[in-house]
């Protein structure tokens, strides 16, 4: 038993190191050339935040494996030698909340501060905003915790008469208890009037996790519901709309000339906005124009990429075209696999969560049977489904690209992502990762039973005063399924059509 637990600790350490190195690789390859060799603090926050998000997703499979480490224990104290998962869960999500609500906003305020100001003034300005945010959050958390930070559990008062200890035990569906005169325990047949509500104060860390989960659940329902459909269908329709052949040189010159004119106009507009910024006239109109220029720049980059795909150049032009074709074939394969996983997710939510009582435990049974084949096969499949849900959230956010009340979706591009966009997306991933874990702990309650995650996200969270009704009536699950269905209908009706660029200059068909 001790050897198994030691192996689990070693695997956890190795996975954390690999996750950290992989996130450094992502940062290096996604960052904009303008951020090279600078903005080190935002970069550290990005790598650390992505690592926390990935580790939090992996902790649920680790929690299951940790539970299995002592299920065959021959003495009561064996489980004390396993990982302290409840403490790890609370620690990881408190760090998550601190990053989302304090550290990432500070890094964004600092990064987007006036470059002409000194470092000290930029830090002071960012700190002012963060301190104000911290005071408001602390007041809200304190008031909410004092007024509604309680968990209400429905309990039933049970009592039973005593009886002589029998010489033999014979229990069946007709006799569940000891004794010959009574075929059912008094506790078993207790009336509904014996039910009462037992109230206890939730711990403050658990309450922080609960509120962060509610905020993340709203975003998760919107982005996840859209993403679970658009992630595979976007890949499939991207293959359908792929360039079928290489364009001629004359057509390439014509399109490149138009894009060049567009680039000059955008540069001229950007210079004018920068001049307005220097003069201090940063009003609502200025911000609106900045967003318009950013949108046009993204459209221009998409047009340039499409043009390069249709007319590869250089000595390895044929190789580039072959790689483009293989890339679209990969999208086809991944789209088909993703569609299978998305359908399985939607079916599982309907069968196991929305229908009461559940028709079947579905994917829970699949994971259990995979564990019977090989000890970690079910855990690996379980981790894959959790990760896929997080990818669906990211895909939904990128697909919508809409302007919300307080912020705008920041796109991420390979080799062209500024740190403010990086920080925003890391905050979004961190916030939604809490809800993904809670959603998975609920959806796979049978497979993840008796885990620390089930205790935090299952029993305690769904019993908190006020919050419990959102889970009692499956508000988030229903919203998820509705948005997934609407997105599927939208793609079925319009996804097969070739997208028309909304910028001024469009590629010729």
UniProtKB/TrEMBL annotation:
Keyword Transmembrane helix attached: yes
Localisation: Membrane
Membrane topology, from the record: Multi-pass membrane protein
Pfam family of the protein (one): LMBR1
InterPro entries: LMBR1-like_membr_prot
Record keyword Repeat present: no
Residues passing through the membrane, by range: 6-28, 40-60, 90-111, 123-148, 207-240, 332-355, 375-402, 422-447, 475-494
Full protein name: LIMR family protein
UniProt organism field: Datura stramonium
Lineage: Eukaryota, Viridiplantae, Streptophyta, Embryophyta, Tracheophyta
């Amino acid at each position: 038993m001790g050897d198994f637990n030691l192996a689990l600790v070693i695997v956890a350490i190795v996975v954390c190191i690999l996750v950290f190195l992989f996130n450094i690789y992502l940062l290096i390859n996604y960052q904009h050339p303008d951020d090279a060799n600078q903005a080190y603090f935002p970069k550290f926050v990005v790598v650390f935040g992505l690592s926390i998000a990935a580790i939090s997703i992996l902790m649920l499979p680790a929690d299951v494996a940790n539970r299995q480490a002592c299920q065959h224990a021959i003495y009561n104290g064996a489980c004390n030698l396993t990982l302290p998962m409840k403490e790890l869960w609370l620690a990881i999500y408190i760090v998550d909340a601190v990053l989302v609500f304090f550290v990432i906003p500070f890094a964004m305020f600092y990064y987007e501060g006036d470059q002409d100001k000194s470092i000290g003034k930029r830090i002071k300005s960012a700190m002012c905003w963060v301190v104000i945010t911290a005071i408001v959050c602390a007041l809200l958390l304190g008031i909410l915790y004092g007024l509604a930070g309680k968990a209400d559990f429905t309990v039933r008062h049970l009592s039973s008469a005593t009886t002589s200890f029998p010489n033999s035990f014979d229990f069946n569906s007709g006799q569940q208890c000891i004794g010959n005169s009574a075929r059912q325990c008094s506790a078993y047949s207790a009336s509904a009037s014996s039910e009462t509500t037992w109230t206890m104060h939730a711990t403050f860390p658990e309450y922080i996790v609960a509120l962060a989960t509610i905020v993340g659940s709203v975003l998760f329902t919107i982005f996840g519901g859209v993403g679970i459909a658009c992630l595979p269908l976007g890949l499939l329709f991207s293959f359908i709309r792929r360039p079928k052949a290489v364009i001629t040189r004359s057509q390439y010159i014509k399109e490149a000339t138009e894009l060049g004119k567009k680039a000059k106009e955008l540069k001229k507009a950007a210079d004018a906005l920068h001049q307005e910024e220097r003069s201090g006239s940063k009003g609502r109109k200025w911000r609106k124009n900045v967003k318009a220029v950013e949108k046009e720049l993204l459209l221009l980059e998409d047009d340039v990429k499409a043009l390069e795909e249709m007319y590869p150049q250089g000595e390895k032009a044929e190789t580039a075209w072959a790689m483009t074709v293989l890339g679209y074939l990969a999208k086809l394969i991944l789209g088909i696999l993703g569609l299978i996983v998305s359908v399985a997710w939607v079916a599982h939510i309907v069968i196991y969560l929305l229908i009461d009582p559940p028709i079947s435990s579905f994917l829970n049974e699949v994971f259990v049977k995979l564990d019977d084949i090989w000890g970690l096969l079910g855990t690996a499949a379980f981790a894959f489904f959790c990760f896929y849900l997080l990818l669906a959230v990211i895909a939904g956010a990128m697909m919508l690209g809409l302007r919300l009340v307080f912020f705008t979706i920041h796109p991420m591009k390979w080799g062209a992502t500024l740190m403010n966009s990086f920080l925003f997306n890391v905050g979004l991933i961190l916030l939604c990762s809490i809800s993904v874990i809670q959603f998975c702990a609920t959806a796979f309650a049978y497979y993840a039973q008796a885990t620390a995650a089930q205790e935090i996200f299952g029993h305690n969270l769904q019993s908190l005063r006020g919050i419990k009704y959102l889970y009692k009536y499956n508000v988030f699950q229903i919203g998820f399924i509705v948005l997934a269905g609407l997105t599927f209908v939208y793609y079925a009706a319009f996804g097969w059509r070739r997208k028309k660029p909304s910028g001024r200059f469009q590629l010729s068909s």
